[in-house]
Amino acid sequence: MAMAGESSGKKIGDCDGKVAGNRQRKVGLIYDETMCKHDTPDGEDHPECPDRIRVIWEKLQLAGVSQRCVVLGSSKAEDKHLQLVHTKDHVNLVKSISTKQKDYRRNRIASQLNSIYLNGGSSEAAYLAAGSVVKLAEKVAEGELDCGFAIVRPPGHHAEADEAMGFCLFNNVAVAASFLLNERPDLGVKKILIVDWDVHHGNGTQKMFWKDPRVLFFSVHRHEYGGFYPAGDDGDYNMVGEGPGEGFNINVPWDQGRCGDADYLAAWDHILIPVAREFNPDVIFLSAGFDAAINDPLGGCCVTPYGYSVMLKKLMEFAQGKIVLALEGGYNLDSIAKSSLACVQVLLEDKQIQGPPEAYPFESTWRVIQAVRKRLCTYWPSLADELSWKLINQKTPTPIILISSSDSETEDDAQGLLDQMSKLSIENPQGTLLENHQVEPASTSWRADLAKVDVWYASFGSNMWKPRFLCYIQGGQVDGLKKVCVGSMDKSPPKETVWETFPHRLFFGRESSVGWGVGGVAFTNPLANLIDQTHMCLYRITLEQFNDVLSQENGLNVDSDSPVFDLAALQLVDNKGSILEAPLNSWYGNVVCLGKERDIPILTMTCTLSAVEKFKSGEIPIRPPAKAYANTLIRGLVEGGRLSKEEAEAYIDKAVSKPL
Ligand code: Q9C
Ligand code: ZN
């Protein structure tokens, strides 16, 4: 098209004297300290903090790259531009925040929103964030700049037409994309690709362009079957758009939280890049959150600055390199500064930075990529071919984080399980091959380390009865249980016991168990839901003790050289909604973090999601609990003061009779 063929940057003139075609690209940067005024009203710490944009700006200056860019002042968005994607009410609400005289009025508004704080600086920052992306986009579309990076906050991609959420007030990128399409038709921008690599799904952007074929929205994010923020089905790969927009919405939903460069680049090479080639955008927006970066406290993924630079480089092949980056999330200050620098160096076409050694995607990554390709291949023929067997065999086996069980012993042959585990090689995302039993040198020091960390062990089965749980700590046997426990190495009792209710489904299944005889044992659906409520008894114990409980439940020895569930595993699940699926056939191959209680993670153990499917299909039987087992649960609920005897019996009956 006409605009796209014109050379860019002619209005500003060559800044470094290189001839056109081989000249230094004009890279715009927008940063404004005013956006730091948006902060928590009470000075409380929050991951979405003012320093996020400061550290990025400082990094670019220290590295000497901002000096090679065109630095622009920020601009406030105009209401009519905001209203291209937001309702009038929403714009007015955000505007009104600064006029409120008192924090409590703002706090009231914020408390009705999902993951939002507000202070006196919030309105101005939100207007500047959106307006700055508009300004940068306009200059890039005009050709005054080649590309650019708007270092803005608050972020935008969760903000919906009529709703602020997920730290986002206005949807900065959506406002700017809509501005180009609707307010500046003279610039000839007819097709826009929005790439969202923030670790969270860009729900707001998706909805705003759901039926719009002019905007191809691509989001890659942690999804975990709807368990990761923003929870639900919106980020599913089946969400492809509607009406004229059908096929113009692409989600790549990771089902686990350890993805790194290899996984992201596989999504690029086998989904995004072929589609971008077919779509042939006039301009690209990048919702550049850096919370999939290695060491991000919310993301849990491990994309390196090198990974980001390669992903960006690949996008610059399209739209004549007209690409507008807008900061979204990213909460490790060091990681976001380094990742941002790597990206600006790509925009400047500096020499490619060095990366870590070649690694392979996870097996689950190939599964997701294949599902996405299949769902979208009618709209994008370049996705139609089956990926070659050779390609998808280049994979990292899913690391076995733990083999856990719930409150009842697993029926799997524990030694057989151990044998299988010892044969497996585990590769980490960086590609270093680790032999399973050499992951950690044989050591007894793990006990000392893990003894320093407390967790809440949330029991929903027989362990709710304290004497039964204490068997796992102090050793021994209780009524109805057909075996003796050895106890934990550290025999100190739980420091605290509290009861809580969680939105998960309790059910009973399997034919019989060694410990309790004929009848099912308790499981809880790893996924939360809005209807069900499961009572759980939380014991505050050390991570060392938690390991010993796990081992005993699995029939393993407690004097192992290495922990089953170590600090790294804790870090991986330390995020509400995280699920670790053990790829083996154990009954309770899944540890789920249910959230936190006074900043201490709450862990429970249950079956995998695939087992839930088998319970549903009848492949694994649903069975009422053995009598002795049910009595133990009831005693737990009654003696713990949680329910009356009648209530406890009714609670178990309901879990037994209600279909899954
Ligand atoms: N249970 C961005 O990265 N987490 N937003 C809230 C509540 C909110 C992230 C957890 C995460 C929002 C732009
Ligand atoms: Zn995010």
Automatic annotation (TrEMBL):
GO terms for cellular component: cytoplasm; histone deacetylase complex. Keywords: Chromatin regulator, Hydrolase, Metal-binding, Nucleus, Repressor, Transcription, Transcription regulation, Zinc. The lineage of its organism: Eukaryota, Viridiplantae, Streptophyta, Embryophyta, Tracheophyta. It catalyses: N(6)-acetyl-L-lysyl-[histone] + H2O = L-lysyl-[histone] + acetate. Its EC number is 3.5.1.98. One of its GO terms (molecular function) is metal ion binding. Residues 46-346 form the Histone deacetylase domain. One of its GO terms (biological process) is epigenetic regulation of gene expression. Its cofactor is Zn(2+). It is found in: Nucleus. Belongs to the histone deacetylase family. HD type 2 subfamily. PANTHER family: HISTONE DEACETYLASE 18-RELATED (PTHR10625:SF25), HISTONE DEACETYLASE HDAC1-RELATED (PTHR10625). The keyword Transport does not apply. This is histone deacetylase. Its main location: nucleus. It comes from the Eukaryota.
